[in-house]
């Protein structure tokens, strides 16, 4: 195996994501599973659309004939969405919820900008950082709405 920086990053994301999923408290596991699967569904479809349209590419990836990033779409991002969903401060003020929901896409977007600038993990073509931020923000919002609906939570009330 060729141990490039890109391969190390991919392995690290899988490792940290798996550990993050394994340490989820038992009381949150059902909500975590729903959030994880829902986010995989969304990002897999959107990732295929983005790559097939040539807006971005993943030069270093896990599978030769799958041009999307399994690391991001199947493991990393869904694992992050799990934590957003299980620790979302639904009972807090609008300002706290706003900051919470903005912090996730901001952190992911900043990381992606660094990866795009300094590695071959991702390359933008007609894509830009603000599309990443917007798509992540929207999909995380959808994840919160779906999870609330799935568990029939009332607004502002969380388990």
TrEMBL record:
Keyword Membrane included in the entry's annotation: yes
Keyword annotations of the record: Membrane, Transmembrane, Transmembrane helix
Cited InterPro entries: CBO0543-like (IPR048147)
Transmembrane segments: 6-24, 36-55, 67-86, 98-115, 127-146
Recorded superkingdom: Bacteria
Protein name: Uncharacterized protein
Organism: Paenibacillus ferrarius
């Amino acid at each position: 195996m060729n141990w490039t920086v890109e391969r190390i990053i991919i392995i690290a994301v899988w490792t940290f994501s798996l550990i993050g999923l394994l340490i989820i408290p038992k009381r949150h596991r059902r909500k975590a599973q729903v959030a994880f699967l829902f986010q995989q569904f969304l990002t897999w479809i959107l990732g295929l659309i983005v790559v097939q349209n040539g807006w971005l590419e993943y030069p270093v990836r896990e599978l030769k004939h799958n041009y999307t990033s399994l690391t991001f779409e199947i493991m990393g991002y869904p694992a992050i969405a799990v934590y957003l969903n299980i620790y979302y401060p639904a009972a807090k003020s609008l300002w706290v919820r706003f900051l919470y929901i903005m912090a996730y896409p901001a952190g992911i977007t900043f990381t992606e900008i660094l990866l795009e600038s300094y590695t071959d993990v991702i390359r933008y073509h007609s894509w830009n950082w603000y599309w990443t931020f917007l798509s992540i923000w929207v999909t995380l919002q959808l994840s919160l709405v779906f999870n609330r609906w799935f568990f029939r939570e009332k607004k502002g009330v969380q388990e």
